[in-house]
Amino acid sequence: MELVNPCGIYQREDLALAPRRPLSDIQVVGLFSNRKHNATLFLDEVGKRLHKRFPHLKFETADKFASSPANFTEQWLSRVHAVVAAFGD
Fold first, then answer.
1. Among 19, 29, 49, 80, which is most buried by a count of CB atoms within 10 Å?
2. Is residue 18 part of a domain?
3. DSSP state of 46
4. What is the pLDDT of residue 17?
C-alpha cells in the first residue's frame, strides 16, 4: 500500500524563529487563517482579547486555502509586526 499526502510536497528552509518583541512595542498584528472550520472565528476572538488588553493594537487579516502554501504580499508583510496563525480542523 502506498500512502500519498494530498497536500503535496513543499520545500522549506529551516530558519531560526525571529526574536519575540513585547506587545507594548508592536503596533499591528496579523491574523492569519487557513480557512478551515473555526480558524477565522478563533482569530476574531484572539483579536478581541488582545485589543482589550492592548488597546493600541491594530489588526490586519490574511488567509489562504488550507492545501496551498501562503503567499503574503510585500505590502501586508511591511505593515505587520507580529502574526497569530490559526489552522483549524
1. 29
2. no
3. H
4. 82
Q: Is residue 8 part of a domain?
A: no
Residue in the block written with cell 503535496: 8
- Assess contact for 69 and 10: CB atoms under 8 A: yes
CB 34 within 8 A of CB 88: yes
pLDDT higher than threshold 70 for residue 89: no
> Any idea which residue has 497536500 for its cell?
7
User: What is the number of other CB atoms lying within 10 angstroms of the CB of residue 78?
Assistant: 8
Neighbours of 82 (CB within 10 A): 16
As a whole number of angstroms, the distance between CA 42 and CA 38 comes to 6
Q: Looking at residue 83, what DSSP letter applies?
A: E
Is 47 a member of any domain? yes
d(CA 33, CA 65) in angstroms, rounded, equals 9
The whole-model pTM stands at 0.71
